[in-house]
Inverse folding.
């Protein structure tokens, strides 16, 4: 699959009907970046963004880490002429100053026009990627795409119900966590008392998601669970204090607890990991709390865990 440059992403874009903008900015489900798509493009059912009715034209809209915008801005400032014949451009949007590139390239044997735009969302970077085939560039001109980019906006929060709807499981209990944030649309979710400004680690938080793997045999579950627990991102100096098989909602599972250090302030935390087996994937539930808050946080973690149900 061809990658967009200079920012890594992948999308396909082909043909549409008219380069006029629709009436107002639209937000792809679960994303804090929105824009006014060109007429003829509708929200995609398979990725965050927009596409034509025949699915030949696509516009990817997603989020990147906060420092991605600063890195691109620095690169553009240091080399305003660009590289490889690709000249960066700046553009004012309601969300602030954005940077984008446009280039002619190939998608397999087909000649295409590609665009990449990045803007700052404060605690994240917004990213939009577009690809247009050569035979549609007279309709979808550089000017039309630039106008679409110029409509980009940021919303502070994604409604909780909208985020939960994307998940491959149903959460019936949020245990009074103050913030709900999608980590990976349709795959992972964080529930936290802290936020992206203060950091999640100084207060209880949970990460719930799907692991696209299962232990090959039931006797491998202990090793699988312990290995997963010691590889939790952001956790350092992990020491397993307990690991044993349990059942969750009648299904085989494994509970593992670790004491560790986490976050930029080296917070001493206790972490519980539950793996629920069954089906082609493994449900992974992680709860982390500062050690002095563990006794009050653990019942909340269990309440969320026990409220997770399959969709339907």
């Amino acid at each position: 699959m061809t990658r967009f440059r200079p920012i890594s992403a992948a999308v396909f874009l082909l043909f549409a009907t008219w380069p006029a903008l629709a009436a107002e900015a639209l937000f792809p489900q679960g994303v804090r970046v929105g824009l006014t798509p060109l007429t003829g493009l509708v929200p995609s059912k398979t990725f965050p963004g927009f596409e034509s009715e025949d699915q030949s034209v696509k516009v990817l809209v997603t989020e990147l880490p906060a420092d991605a915008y600063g890195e691109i801005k620095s690169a553009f400032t240091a080399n305003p002429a660009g590289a490889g014949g690709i000249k960066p451009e700046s553009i004012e949007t309601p969300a602030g100053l954005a940077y984008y590139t446009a280039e002619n390239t190939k998608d397999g044997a087909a000649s295409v026009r590609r665009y990449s735009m990045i803007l700052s969302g404060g605690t994240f970077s917004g990213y939009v990627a577009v690809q247009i085939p050569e035979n549609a560039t007279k309709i979808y001109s550089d000017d039309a795409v630039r106008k679409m980019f110029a409509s980009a906006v940021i919303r502070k929060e994604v409604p909780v119900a909208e985020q939960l709807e994307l998940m491959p499981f149903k959460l019936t209990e949020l245990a009074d966590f103050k913030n709900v944030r999608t980590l990976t649309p349709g795959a992972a979710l964080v529930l936290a008392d802290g936020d992206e400004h203060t950091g999640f680690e100084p207060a209880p938080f949970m990460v719930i998601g799907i692991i696209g793997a299962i232990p090959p045999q039931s006797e491998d579950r202990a090793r699988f669970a312990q290995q997963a627990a010691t590889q939790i991102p952001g956790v350092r100096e992990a020491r397993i204090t307990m690991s044993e098989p349990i059942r969750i909602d009648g299904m085989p599972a494994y509970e593992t607890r670790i004491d560790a250090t986490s976050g930029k302030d080296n917070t001493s935390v206790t972490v519980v990991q539950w793996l629920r087996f069954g089906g082609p994937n493994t449900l992974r539930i992680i709860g982390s709390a500062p050690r002095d808050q563990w006794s009050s946080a653990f019942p909340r973690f269990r309440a969320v865990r026990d409220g997770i149900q399959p969709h339907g």
Remarks:
- Residues 33-154 form a domain with the Protein Transport Mog1p; Chain A fold (CATH 3.40.1000.10).
- The chain is about 15% helix and 40% strand.
- The helical segments are 67-78, 142-150, 160-166, 221-229, 294-306.
